[in-house]
Amino acid sequence: MLPYGRQDIDEADIEAVVAALRSDWLTTGPEVARFEKAISEVAGGASATTVTSGTAALHTAYAAADLAPGDEVVTTPMTFVATQSTACAFGAKMVFADIDPFTGNLDPEAAAAAVTDKTRVIATVDYAGHPVKAPEFQKLAAESGALFLEDAAHSIGSTLNGVPVGQLADLTTFSFFPTKNLTTAEGGAVVTPRADLEKRARNFKGLGMIRDPKEMRAEDEGGWFYEVQEFGLNYRLPDVLCALGTSQIARLGAAKARRQEIHDRYNAAFKGNENLTLPGVEQGAEPMWHLYPLRVEAARRRAIFDELRNRGIGVQVNYIPSYWHPVFHDMGYKRGMCPNAEEFYAQEISLPLFATLADDQVDFVIENVLEIVGS
Fold this sequence. Notes:
Elements: E1 2-3, H1 11-21, H2 30-42, E2 47-51, H3 54-64, E3 72-75, H4 82-88, E4 93-96, H5 108-114, E5 119-125, H6 134-144, E6 147-151, E7 159-160, E8 163-164, E9 171-175, E10 188-192, H7 195-205, E11 209-210, E12 227-228, H8 239-249, H9 252-270, E13 285-286, E14 292-295, H10 301-310, E15 313-314, H11 326-329, H12 339-347, E16 348-351, H13 359-373
Helix pairs in contact: 1-8, 2-8, 3-4, 3-7, 9-13
Keywords: Pyridoxal phosphate
Pfam family, one: DegT_DnrJ_EryC1
InterPro entries: DegT/StrS_aminotransferase, PyrdxlP-dep_Trfase, PyrdxlP-dep_Trfase_major, PyrdxlP-dep_Trfase_small
């Protein structure tokens, strides 16, 4: 089965991990700082705090935002549920706003209509790797007294008008799951240009432990002493995985170029086919493509999906609208809230897209899609 996404591990990655295993540090060591510096460079200089997963990154970002019960988060339904579940863990209320069907990203106008005086965070998602309209969300957040969080699980390496993702929001989260643009097996990061948010993020991912005597409430009792002033969790990414990430990030530019080549090859083959809708790209956006979200006739989507899988092409659907899940239904959310997102979901199929996908494999996918869908 040809998967829709997979990791790209080379000998340099293996050597980096082996070197970390042979070192004195398996965790909380120098590889962590090295990887965070590399992430910061990709993110345009914003500080990076590594964590154990993309979900942990979101949880940590909401902690940095000081999210509390009664706060509202305006968000998109076109995402994996972790974008919302980690905010719900703090007792926040989700307010779903509809998407722009051109890109699959949260529509700024729909988000603006959903903002209230209880809005604490506006949480967007860079769907498929395409950056959101960050300047509009920056403005909306500033006007409403909220924080702008960009869930960039798909989009490390993307830019908007030349500005890297990571510099565009108050808080940005990355995922390093194997199917993502770079991997640490499991891992993630919180990126922010704001020192206050970085401090809160680091405290939360480190179990809330404070060792700086200047910040302690009690008198320092010695080199062993620390305080926990707010609860946190152990979301520390080990040196072994950070070593893999630093090695991977050195090839990020090449991976971006190859993903764009595959994306272009699909576009050229499918352009003009009245049965297909190609992914949209906004002017000024240079995505690091994580997905190729092709859209087909909704009534035929399941049959097309099943037949492609029968032919050995491991297509996927991204995503089930978040509020369709029973956990949200039980809170009172109903289908029909975001019609653009629901129509997008009904039509979407993600085709294989990863850096090591060969041209003949891309052509195999194209041939089968066109044969099944028709011209």
